[in-house]
Structure formats: C-alpha cells, structure tokens
C-alpha cells in the first residue's frame, strides 16, 4: 500500500508528545520520551516487535478501538515499575506498595485510557475519523500472545506506533503501543 512514511512519523512524534503530557499530568513528574517510532509490519511478526514479552511478569493494560479504525492500545510496565507508579500516583514514597489492590489496577487501566486517548487525539487531528478506545482491561501475556497469533493468521499488514515514556527520577518506564490495521494508512493519506 502506498503511504508517506514521513506523515506517519510526524503522527508518531505528535502522539508521543501528547501522551507524555498526559502522563506527566497524572504523575506530577517530568516525563521523557526515549522512543517514538512507527512501523508497518506484517501482523504475524508482531510478537517480535513487542519487547515487554521478555519480562516474566509485566503489568499490561489493553483496550480495543471502538470507532471507525480497527486497532488496539496497550500499556505495559514491569511489575516493579507499576508498583512504583502506583506509589507516585498515591503520593507515597517509592517502594511503599507491595501488592496491587483493586484501586491500583483501576489506576493502571485509567492511565492507559488517558494517555491512549491523548495519542489518539493527535492522530485524529490528521484524519477526519473519531478514534476512541473501549474500557481498558488488565491482561496476562499468554492471552495477549494468543490474540496476536489470531491477528497474525489474517496475513495482513499492521501499523505499530510505539512510545516509551520514562520517569527517570523514580525508575519508571512505560511502553505504549497503538496497533492499527493497514486501513489507517489510507485514512491518513486521504486526509493529507
């Protein structure tokens, strides 16, 4: 499919910037973006592109797109980073939280909701499409891998936006992925 890579890269940078602003507002801390990238790949290779699968117990929030564009949004952190993030949100000393409570899980899901929608707003500015996500859920990597295998069986191209947002002061790094079917390329191209 024809597309302008530079337009997708502009969207990736704008989306990462919007997500980092939202992440900073939530945490009350300075955020840096260590990675902001976009790639078109075949769906069957998605598992090789997502680094958090290497972690033994990541905390992963997931949401499905519910408007015109097919896609998903994923926020992942190591368990230790997620616990640190909960402490930061609760204005407690880092290392205080040792076990996730229901309210902590809700905070992780709401974080995905807020920063994903910030990213999607940046995307929506380049298109005429409304982009929103469903209510996020926490998922385990086994279920997520199965879902990616199902996507891979379709043998179609996908667009992977990846941002790594870091709060260096508190040793927190969060990976944000927005993964779309290739129809997003056509939508962006048609509007630029």
What this model shows, in words?
- The protein has 192 residues and is α+β, with helices and mostly antiparallel strands.
- It has a single domain (5-190), classed as 3-Layer(aba) Sandwich (Chemotaxis protein chec), CATH 3.40.1550.10.
- 42% of the residues lie in helices and 25% in strands.
- It has six helices and six strands.
- Strands 1-5-6-3-2-4 form a six-stranded antiparallel sheet, with helices on both faces.
- A hairpin with a 4-residue loop joins strand 5 and strand 6.
- Helix 1 packs antiparallel against helix 4.
- The protein is globular.
- The mean pLDDT is 83.
Please give the structural blueprint.
Layout: H1 5-27, E1 32-42, H2 46-49, E2 59-64, E3 71-77, H3 79-89, H4 102-124, E4 137-139, H5 141-152, E5 157-167, E6 172-181, H6 183-190
Antiparallel strand pairs: 1-5, 2-3, 2-4, 3-6, 5-6
Name of the CATH first level: Alpha Beta
Q: Structural class, from helix and strand content?
A: alpha+beta
Largest sheet, described in full? 6 strands, antiparallel
How many domain regions? 1
Which descriptors would you attach to this protein?
192 residues, 6 strands, 6 helices, six-stranded antiparallel β-sheet, Chemotaxis protein chec
Short description:
The chain has 192 residues and is α+β, with helices and mostly antiparallel strands. The chain has helices at residues 5-27, 46-49, 79-89, 102-124, 141-152, 183-190; strands spanning 32-42, 59-64, 71-77, 137-139, 157-167, 172-181.
């Amino acid at each position: 499919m024809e597309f302008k890579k530079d337009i997708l890269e502009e969207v990736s940078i704008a989306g990462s910037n919007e997500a980092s602003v939202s992440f900073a507002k939530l945490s009350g801390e300075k955020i840096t973006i260590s990675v902001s990238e976009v790639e078109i790949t075949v769906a069957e290779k998605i598992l090789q592109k997502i680094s958090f699968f290497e972690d033994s117990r990541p905390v992963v929030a997931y949401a499905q797109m519910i408007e015109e564009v097919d896609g998903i949004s994923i926020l992942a952190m190591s368990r230790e980073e997620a616990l640190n993030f909960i402490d930061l949100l609760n204005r407690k000393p880092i290392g205080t939280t040792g076990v996730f409570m229901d309210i902590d899980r809700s905070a992780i899901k709401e974080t995905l909701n807020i920063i994903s929608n910030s990213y999607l707003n940046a995307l929506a500015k380049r298109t005429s499409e409304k982009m929103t996500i469903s209510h996020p859920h926490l998922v385990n990597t086994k279920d997520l891998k199965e879902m990616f295998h199902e996507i891979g069986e379709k043998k179609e191209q996908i667009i992977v936006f990846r941002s790594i947002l870091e709060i260096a002061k508190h040793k927190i790094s969060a990976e944000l992925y927005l993964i779309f079917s290739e129809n997003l390329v056509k939508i962006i191209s048609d509007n630029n």
